[in-house]
Amino acid sequence: FGSYVQMGESDCRVGETCFNILQLPDDIWLLILSHLQILDVVRCEMSCSMMRDLVVYYGVYKAMLDNICRRKKINNYMILPETVRMTKTELETSAYYKGRLYQYTNKFAARLREEDGYIQTYKVGRKKKELDRLASRGMKQFSLIGV
Prior knowledge:
This protein has 9 helices and no strands. It is mainly alpha-helical. The radius of gyration is 25 Å and the shape is extended.
């Protein structure tokens, strides 16, 4: 957005039409947001209160989750039941769908690997290469026959 967003009426030259990008209609913003990645929508939401209100009021995260499920032809099992949704504010509902969307899209993200003390302690001799290979695969079960 840069300085284009921050341009005020006093920044306009005589005879020029000044336009603030935040003055776009909501439907245009929703169309723009629908083409962004999840983290970019989060960044937009954090940029100003107008964008946050837009994302929360129109349920952008729920719509993104619905679109993913529709595209994959699967049932959206993460939808809030009506009785639960009625007890939450729009902000809480948006936060719920943001969290579910993030969990769904990052379910295969690399997790921190824990060091296996047994492998580090008994990594000697002929089994060293096999233990290293198994540890790199993340397999914790292996045979100690032939040690």
